[in-house]
Amino acid sequence: MNDLKSALIKSAYKAFSTTDFKKVSTNDIVQDAKVSKGLLFHYFKNKESLYLSLYEMAWQVVYTEVTTDFPRDSQDLFLRLKEMIIRKTSSLQRHPTLANFMKRVHACQVPFIQQERQRIYYNVNVDIYKSVYEDYDVSKFPHPEHHDEISKVVTWTLNRIASDWEKNHANSTPEDALKILQAELTHYIDFFKHYFY
After folding, report:
1. Do 101 and 136 share a structural domain?
2. Does residue 52 share a domain with residue 34?
3. pLDDT for position 175
C-alpha cells in the first residue's frame, strides 16, 4: 500500500471511529490526510465503499492476529475456542481505533451498511471458526458421531452471546465491554466443556 493511500485510510479510521457515518465528510478525511478528493474516489467508489472497505480491513487485522501461529498442539476443541476468544478480544484491545470504529459500524442504521457489514462479519468469522475446528479431537465427546451438531450449537451460542453483548454494552467503552465479553464467553466455554465431555 502506498503512502498516500495509507494516510487516507488512517484519516478515515480516525474520523469514523469518533463520529457517526452520516456525519463524517469525505472533505474532512482528505483534508486530514492531505490528499486530493480525486485520490479518495480513485481507490473507493463512494463513502459507503470506503466505510465497508475499512470494516473489512479491520476484520482482516483481527483474523490475522487470531489465526497466525494458532496453537495446534492441543486438539481439545474447548481449549482452542478459549484461545480464539482471548486472541480476538486481545486483538481489539490492542487496536482501540479499530475497536471504536467497529462498534460504530455495528450501530450504523443505514440499511445497505447493515446488510454488507453482516456479510463481511459472517465471512470472516466463518474463516476463524474453520481454523479453530480443523482436526480437533472428537473422541472426547461421549457420542463422537454428533461432533458436527455440537460444534454448531457451540458456535451459535457464542455468536448469540456476542450479538447480545453488542446491544447490552453499546454505551460502554470498547475496552470495558471486551473484558466483559471475554469473561462471558470463556464462562460458557467452561460450561460446554463440563457438560459435553
Report:
1. yes
2. no
3. 84
Which pairs count as long-range contacts for 24-29, CB under 8 Å and 24+ apart, including other chains?
26/50
DSSP state of 170: T
What's the CA gap between 150 and 155, in Å, rounded? 9
Q: 107 is written with which cell numbers? A: 450501530
pLDDT tens-digit profile of 141-183?
999 999 999 999 999 999 999 888 877 777 788 888 889 999 9
DSSP string, 14-53: HHHHHS-GGG--HHHHHHHHT--HHHHHHH-SSHHHHHHH
Longest dimension (CA), the chain: 62
pTM of the model: 0.90
Whether residue 115 is found in the same domain as residue 131: yes
Looking at the structure, tell me whether residues 84 and 15 fall in a common domain: no
